[in-house]
Amino acid sequence: MFNRKLLAQLLTGIALTIGSVGMAQATLSSLLLNGNNVIEDDSNEYVFRPDGGGGYDLITSGALAVGDVLVQVLDFPIINGTNIDSQGYELTGLALNTVTDLSTPVLFDPDGFGPRPSYLAVNAEFGVATSADWLTLVGIDTTSLGFDATGLFSLLYEDTQNNLDVHSQGYPTGVANAADGTLRLGLSLTDPADFAVSTNVPSLVETFLIGTGGVTQYGTFDYGLTVAYQNIPNWNVNSQFIGSGTNLTTDRPLIAAVIDDTQASFSANPVPEPGSLALLSVGLLGFGFLRRRSVKS
After folding, report:
1. Model-level pTM greater than 0.85?
2. What residue numbers bound the domain in which 182 lies?
3. How many domains does the chain have?
Protein backbone atom coordinates (compact mmCIF):
# COMPACT_ATOMS: atom_id res chain seq x y z
CA MET A 1 0.00 0.00 0.00
CA PHE A 2 1.29 3.50 -0.89
CA ASN A 3 2.17 5.33 2.32
CA ARG A 4 1.75 9.06 1.65
CA LYS A 5 2.72 10.07 5.17
CA LEU A 6 6.02 8.21 4.95
CA LEU A 7 6.77 9.76 1.53
CA ALA A 8 5.97 13.25 2.83
CA GLN A 9 8.28 12.83 5.80
CA LEU A 10 11.02 11.49 3.54
CA LEU A 11 10.78 14.39 1.08
CA THR A 12 10.74 16.97 3.86
CA GLY A 13 13.72 15.36 5.58
CA ILE A 14 15.73 15.33 2.35
CA ALA A 15 15.03 19.00 1.72
CA LEU A 16 15.97 20.05 5.24
CA THR A 17 19.09 17.89 5.29
CA ILE A 18 20.42 19.17 1.97
CA GLY A 19 19.62 22.73 2.97
CA SER A 20 21.46 22.43 6.28
CA VAL A 21 24.53 20.94 4.59
CA GLY A 22 24.66 23.85 2.17
CA MET A 23 24.36 26.38 5.01
CA ALA A 24 27.23 24.75 6.93
CA GLN A 25 29.75 25.28 4.16
CA ALA A 26 32.12 28.19 4.75
CA THR A 27 31.94 30.30 1.59
CA LEU A 28 31.67 33.91 0.56
CA SER A 29 27.93 33.39 0.17
CA SER A 30 27.59 32.09 3.72
CA LEU A 31 29.35 35.13 5.20
CA LEU A 32 27.50 37.90 3.37
CA LEU A 33 24.83 39.89 5.16
CA ASN A 34 21.53 41.29 3.91
CA GLY A 35 22.46 44.96 3.71
CA ASN A 36 25.86 46.48 4.31
CA ASN A 37 28.97 44.30 4.06
CA VAL A 38 32.59 45.12 4.88
CA ILE A 39 35.66 43.33 3.56
CA GLU A 40 39.25 44.15 4.43
CA ASP A 41 42.33 43.51 2.36
CA ASP A 42 46.09 43.50 2.37
CA SER A 43 47.74 44.06 -0.97
CA ASN A 44 51.01 44.49 -2.78
CA GLU A 45 51.21 47.28 -5.32
CA TYR A 46 53.63 47.42 -8.23
CA VAL A 47 54.39 50.42 -10.43
CA PHE A 48 55.03 49.77 -14.13
CA ARG A 49 55.94 52.29 -16.80
CA PRO A 50 55.27 51.65 -20.52
CA ASP A 51 58.57 51.55 -22.39
CA GLY A 52 57.13 52.78 -25.69
CA GLY A 53 57.70 49.45 -27.41
CA GLY A 54 54.84 47.42 -26.04
CA GLY A 55 56.65 46.45 -22.85
CA TYR A 56 56.84 47.77 -19.29
CA ASP A 57 59.56 48.63 -16.80
CA LEU A 58 59.07 47.94 -13.10
CA ILE A 59 59.70 51.25 -11.33
CA THR A 60 61.35 51.12 -7.90
CA SER A 61 62.90 54.59 -7.88
CA GLY A 62 62.28 58.01 -9.34
CA ALA A 63 59.18 60.13 -9.52
CA LEU A 64 55.70 58.73 -10.11
CA ALA A 65 54.45 59.88 -13.52
CA VAL A 66 51.21 60.23 -15.43
CA GLY A 67 50.78 57.08 -17.53
CA ASP A 68 52.30 54.73 -14.97
CA VAL A 69 50.32 51.52 -14.52
CA LEU A 70 49.67 50.26 -11.00
CA VAL A 71 49.09 46.55 -10.45
CA GLN A 72 47.64 45.44 -7.12
CA VAL A 73 47.63 41.85 -5.84
CA LEU A 74 44.76 41.69 -3.34
CA ASP A 75 44.04 39.34 -0.46
CA PHE A 76 40.85 39.76 1.61
CA PRO A 77 41.39 37.84 4.87
CA ILE A 78 38.44 39.39 6.72
CA ILE A 79 34.79 39.37 5.63
CA ASN A 80 32.28 41.03 7.96
CA GLY A 81 34.64 40.59 10.89
CA THR A 82 35.35 36.90 10.22
CA ASN A 83 38.93 35.92 9.50
CA ILE A 84 38.66 33.42 6.65
CA ASP A 85 42.32 32.37 6.51
CA SER A 86 41.53 29.38 8.71
CA GLN A 87 38.34 28.51 6.82
CA GLY A 88 40.10 26.69 3.98
CA TYR A 89 39.39 29.26 1.27
CA GLU A 90 40.18 32.83 0.30
CA LEU A 91 38.88 35.90 -1.49
CA THR A 92 41.57 37.39 -3.71
CA GLY A 93 41.83 39.89 -6.52
CA LEU A 94 43.79 41.86 -9.07
CA ALA A 95 43.43 45.58 -9.71
CA LEU A 96 44.96 47.54 -12.60
CA ASN A 97 44.77 51.30 -13.04
CA THR A 98 46.77 54.13 -14.55
CA VAL A 99 47.93 57.43 -13.12
CA THR A 100 45.91 60.11 -14.91
CA ASP A 101 46.75 63.22 -12.89
CA LEU A 102 49.32 64.33 -10.30
CA SER A 103 49.41 67.53 -8.28
CA THR A 104 52.57 69.57 -7.81
CA PRO A 105 54.87 67.89 -5.26
CA VAL A 106 54.98 69.55 -1.85
CA LEU A 107 57.03 68.76 1.25
CA PHE A 108 54.74 66.88 3.64
CA ASP A 109 55.37 65.89 7.24
CA PRO A 110 53.11 62.96 8.17
CA ASP A 111 53.37 63.41 11.94
CA GLY A 112 54.54 66.95 12.60
CA PHE A 113 57.45 66.81 15.00
CA GLY A 114 57.17 63.01 15.25
CA PRO A 115 59.74 60.42 14.20
CA ARG A 116 58.57 59.97 10.61
CA PRO A 117 60.55 62.16 8.19
CA SER A 118 59.04 64.62 5.75
CA TYR A 119 58.73 63.58 2.13
CA LEU A 120 57.67 64.99 -1.22
CA ALA A 121 53.96 64.22 -1.60
CA VAL A 122 51.40 64.50 -4.37
CA ASN A 123 47.69 63.93 -4.77
CA ALA A 124 46.93 61.46 -7.54
CA GLU A 125 43.96 60.46 -9.67
CA PHE A 126 43.69 57.06 -11.34
CA GLY A 127 41.96 55.87 -14.47
CA VAL A 128 41.38 52.77 -16.54
CA ALA A 129 44.13 50.39 -17.60
CA THR A 130 44.03 49.14 -21.19
CA SER A 131 43.30 45.61 -22.36
CA ALA A 132 46.98 45.41 -23.37
CA ASP A 133 47.96 46.29 -19.78
CA TRP A 134 45.79 43.47 -18.43
CA LEU A 135 47.08 40.93 -20.94
CA THR A 136 50.77 41.77 -20.67
CA LEU A 137 51.07 42.48 -16.95
CA VAL A 138 48.78 39.82 -15.46
CA GLY A 139 47.98 37.51 -18.40
CA ILE A 140 44.22 38.18 -18.47
CA ASP A 141 42.44 38.64 -21.79
CA THR A 142 39.61 41.00 -20.88
CA THR A 143 37.74 40.20 -24.10
CA SER A 144 37.21 36.63 -22.92
CA LEU A 145 35.75 37.43 -19.51
CA GLY A 146 32.14 37.03 -20.64
CA PHE A 147 30.98 40.54 -19.75
CA ASP A 148 31.56 44.10 -20.90
CA ALA A 149 34.98 44.86 -19.46
CA THR A 150 34.94 48.52 -20.49
CA GLY A 151 36.48 50.49 -17.65
CA LEU A 152 37.61 47.36 -15.82
CA PHE A 153 39.38 48.21 -12.55
CA SER A 154 39.42 45.02 -10.49
CA LEU A 155 38.58 41.32 -10.56
CA LEU A 156 37.77 39.38 -7.37
CA TYR A 157 38.05 35.59 -7.06
CA GLU A 158 36.92 32.99 -4.54
CA ASP A 159 39.40 30.15 -4.18
CA THR A 160 39.37 26.97 -2.08
CA GLN A 161 43.15 26.53 -2.34
CA ASN A 162 43.95 29.40 0.06
CA ASN A 163 47.38 29.73 -1.53
CA LEU A 164 47.94 33.51 -1.79
CA ASP A 165 50.21 35.15 0.78
CA VAL A 166 51.01 38.77 -0.03
CA HIS A 167 53.43 38.87 2.89
CA SER A 168 55.82 36.36 1.36
CA GLN A 169 55.07 36.04 -2.36
CA GLY A 170 56.48 38.36 -4.99
CA TYR A 171 54.97 39.55 -8.26
CA PRO A 172 54.75 36.46 -10.53
CA THR A 173 53.61 34.06 -7.81
CA GLY A 174 51.24 36.57 -6.27
CA VAL A 175 49.54 37.34 -9.59
CA ALA A 176 49.13 33.66 -10.42
CA ASN A 177 47.68 32.77 -7.01
CA ALA A 178 45.38 35.79 -6.96
CA ALA A 179 43.58 34.78 -10.16
CA ASP A 180 43.35 30.99 -9.89
CA GLY A 181 39.89 30.83 -8.31
CA THR A 182 36.28 31.34 -9.42
CA LEU A 183 35.56 34.85 -10.66
CA ARG A 184 32.97 36.42 -8.37
CA LEU A 185 33.04 40.16 -9.08
CA GLY A 186 34.21 42.56 -11.76
CA LEU A 187 34.50 46.21 -10.72
CA SER A 188 34.87 49.14 -13.09
CA LEU A 189 35.30 52.87 -13.47
CA THR A 190 32.32 53.45 -15.76
CA ASP A 191 29.79 55.58 -13.92
CA PRO A 192 30.35 59.37 -13.73
CA ALA A 193 30.27 58.99 -9.94
CA ASP A 194 33.11 56.42 -9.91
CA PHE A 195 36.49 57.55 -8.65
CA ALA A 196 39.93 56.38 -7.52
CA VAL A 197 42.17 58.94 -5.84
CA SER A 198 45.11 59.10 -3.45
CA THR A 199 46.13 61.87 -1.07
CA ASN A 200 49.65 62.64 0.14
CA VAL A 201 51.20 59.70 -1.69
CA PRO A 202 55.00 59.97 -2.11
CA SER A 203 56.12 61.57 -5.34
CA LEU A 204 59.26 59.43 -5.26
CA VAL A 205 58.61 55.69 -5.38
CA GLU A 206 61.75 54.90 -3.38
CA THR A 207 60.27 56.72 -0.39
CA PHE A 208 58.27 53.55 0.25
CA LEU A 209 61.50 51.54 0.35
CA ILE A 210 63.17 53.62 3.05
CA GLY A 211 60.33 54.07 5.50
CA THR A 212 61.07 54.19 9.19
CA GLY A 213 61.10 50.87 11.04
CA GLY A 214 58.05 48.64 11.19
CA VAL A 215 55.09 49.87 9.18
CA THR A 216 54.93 53.48 8.01
CA GLN A 217 51.86 55.14 6.51
CA TYR A 218 52.38 57.25 3.42
CA GLY A 219 49.10 58.86 2.49
CA THR A 220 45.60 57.54 1.95
CA PHE A 221 43.44 56.49 -0.97
CA ASP A 222 39.72 56.27 -1.70
CA TYR A 223 37.66 54.69 -4.45
CA GLY A 224 34.09 54.11 -5.57
CA LEU A 225 33.56 51.46 -8.25
CA THR A 226 30.64 50.10 -10.27
CA VAL A 227 29.79 46.40 -10.08
CA ALA A 228 30.12 45.39 -13.74
CA TYR A 229 29.89 41.64 -13.15
CA GLN A 230 28.77 39.44 -10.29
CA ASN A 231 28.60 35.71 -9.73
CA ILE A 232 27.89 35.12 -6.05
CA PRO A 233 25.45 32.26 -5.50
CA ASN A 234 22.27 33.41 -3.75
CA TRP A 235 23.36 37.06 -3.60
CA ASN A 236 23.02 40.26 -5.60
CA VAL A 237 25.43 43.14 -5.02
CA ASN A 238 23.37 46.26 -5.66
CA SER A 239 25.58 49.22 -4.87
CA GLN A 240 28.94 50.78 -5.59
CA PHE A 241 32.01 49.32 -3.97
CA ILE A 242 33.18 52.12 -1.70
CA GLY A 243 36.62 51.76 -0.18
CA SER A 244 39.40 53.61 1.57
CA GLY A 245 42.78 52.69 2.92
CA THR A 246 46.37 53.59 3.60
CA ASN A 247 49.53 53.38 1.53
CA LEU A 248 52.17 51.63 3.60
CA THR A 249 55.76 50.53 3.49
CA THR A 250 57.14 47.60 5.46
CA ASP A 251 60.45 45.91 6.06
CA ARG A 252 59.99 43.64 3.03
CA PRO A 253 60.82 45.89 0.05
CA LEU A 254 61.93 42.93 -2.07
CA ILE A 255 58.30 41.74 -2.13
CA ALA A 256 56.67 45.03 -3.13
CA ALA A 257 57.46 48.71 -2.86
CA VAL A 258 53.98 49.67 -1.73
CA ILE A 259 51.78 47.76 0.69
CA ASP A 260 48.12 48.77 1.01
CA ASP A 261 45.54 48.15 3.69
CA THR A 262 41.91 48.69 2.70
CA GLN A 263 38.35 48.46 3.92
CA ALA A 264 35.58 48.27 1.32
CA SER A 265 31.83 48.31 1.86
CA PHE A 266 28.94 47.34 -0.39
CA SER A 267 25.28 46.45 -0.10
CA ALA A 268 23.92 43.01 -1.00
CA ASN A 269 20.59 41.24 -0.82
CA PRO A 270 19.78 37.52 -1.00
CA VAL A 271 18.35 36.17 -4.25
CA PRO A 272 17.03 32.57 -4.21
CA GLU A 273 18.79 30.48 -6.81
CA PRO A 274 16.95 27.76 -8.78
CA GLY A 275 18.43 25.02 -6.60
CA SER A 276 17.14 26.67 -3.43
CA LEU A 277 13.71 27.14 -4.97
CA ALA A 278 13.67 23.48 -5.94
CA LEU A 279 14.49 22.40 -2.39
CA LEU A 280 11.77 24.70 -1.07
CA SER A 281 9.30 23.16 -3.50
CA VAL A 282 10.23 19.67 -2.35
CA GLY A 283 9.73 20.70 1.26
CA LEU A 284 6.37 22.33 0.52
CA LEU A 285 5.33 19.23 -1.39
CA GLY A 286 6.05 17.16 1.69
CA PHE A 287 4.12 19.47 3.95
CA GLY A 288 1.28 19.46 1.43
CA PHE A 289 1.05 15.68 1.58
CA LEU A 290 0.97 15.82 5.37
CA ARG A 291 -1.78 18.46 5.40
CA ARG A 292 -3.86 16.58 2.85
CA ARG A 293 -3.48 13.38 4.84
CA SER A 294 -4.52 15.05 8.08
CA VAL A 295 -7.61 16.61 6.47
CA LYS A 296 -8.74 13.24 5.11
CA SER A 297 -8.23 11.63 8.51
Report:
1. no
2. 33-272
3. 1
